[in-house]
Prior knowledge:
Strand content: 15-25%
Largest sheet: 6 strands, parallel
Number of domains: 1
CATH architecture: 3-Layer(aba) Sandwich
Shape: globular
CATH topology: Rossmann fold
CATH superfamily: HUPs
Radius of gyration: 17 Å
Structural class: alpha/beta
Helix content: 25-40%
Number of helices: 9
Distance between the termini: 45 Å
Amino acid sequence: MKRIGIMGGTFNPVHKGHLALAKAAKAEFALDHIIFIPSGNPPHKRPTEVIDKEHRYKMVRLAIKGMKGFTVSRIELDRPGFSYAVDTFTALKRKYGKSAKLFYIMGLDSINEILDWKKPLELFRLCEFIVGTRPGTRIRTFRRLVKFPPLQKEVDQIHLMELRENISASEIREKLKAGRSVSRLIPKSVANYIRKHNLYQ
């Protein structure tokens, strides 16, 4: 049975923290493949907060170029309406069936908000979760979350993994807007793309 990791998100823009999380998850949980899935129309973001989906898709493609076992999917970009994780994982489960086990790779902020998502308990029937925590992050909210009765029996499906990187896309956007260097935070190919298309100015 293949073990497939799914990296979802707006990737606004994709950065080295995303890549570090994906690489660490692949190694620690013996994943065969990682699929990056940029969201097309994220329900929890205002349209003005997120740049065009085609730019975000192309930046992810550049960021993972040459990385063995890493691909990017347009499944949410080409689907009309809001991009809900439960719809994506239902489609992936239909595609792979019993030939694959799916792991949803995300940050602590995302898992803390999961009860506000569409059909969150259904999502637990479709995949397991690998949650990357930043250095020194307080996980009090997460501990309260897993004590919530509907999730208590699902807690074994959530795996925490501490990372050394502490990078946020909002910090990158602020630096770019201020004309400051972000070379330490994003791949060179992504930095060149942003410069070429005057993004986040």
